[in-house]
Design the sequence.
């Protein structure tokens, strides 16, 4: 289908503690491991003509450096689950603002039904959109929405 012709490059960033996904609190974050989620998403991305580069770090500076690199290495879209840095990191916000790259913020859990400190995101107002509470499917929905956004821009 024409979907395979665009060859978009997406960066998936997962923040702190998500390397533990599936091992603890499966009732909140699901039972799938991050490696499984990344593998599934890479396959879905290929079907949409997207090359997906998946990274995870517990280090704020590493996530920031990867965002800087994305800006100068023709990444078309960032999908990011900032985890706890969502609620704390002005530095991560500044890095994303500086790149001018479009991004979608993804949360596995519904951050609005949990502790109050999880209800504010320093990144959300800069995002194309935010998906939360839909578990691992949230990443797939973000992937699909990002492709649709880029195709709309290409057709305008
Ligand atoms: O729902 C999310 O995806 C979220 O971004 C993810 C988070 C997250 C991610 C990974 C681990 C944990 S806490 C944890 C630690 C060890 C094992 C299982 C969970 C929270 C929270 O910090 C955020 O408030 C919400």
Sequence:
């Amino acid at each position: 289908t024409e979907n395979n012709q665009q060859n978009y490059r997406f960066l998936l960033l997962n923040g702190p503690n998500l390397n533990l996904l599936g091992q603890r609190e499966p009732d909140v974050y699901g039972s799938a491991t991050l490696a499984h989620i990344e593998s599934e998403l890479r396959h879905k991305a290929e079907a949409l003509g997207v090359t997906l580069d998946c990274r995870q770090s517990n280090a704020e500076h590493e996530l920031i450096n990867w965002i800087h690199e994305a800006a100068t290495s023709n990444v078309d879209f960032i999908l990011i689950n900032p985890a706890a840095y969502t609620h704390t990191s002005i530095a991560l916000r500044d890095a994303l603002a500086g790149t001018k790259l479009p991004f979608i913020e993804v949360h596995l859990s519904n951050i609005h039904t949990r502790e109050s400190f999880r209800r504010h995101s320093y990144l959300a107002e800069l995002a194309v959109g935010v998906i939360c509470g839909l578990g691992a499917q949230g990443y797939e929905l973000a992937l699909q929405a990002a492709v649709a956004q880029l195709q709309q821009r290409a057709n305008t």
Remarks:
- The longest helix spans residues 137-154.
- The beta strands are 8-14, 50-56, 77-81, 103-107, 129-132.
- The radius of gyration is 15 Å.
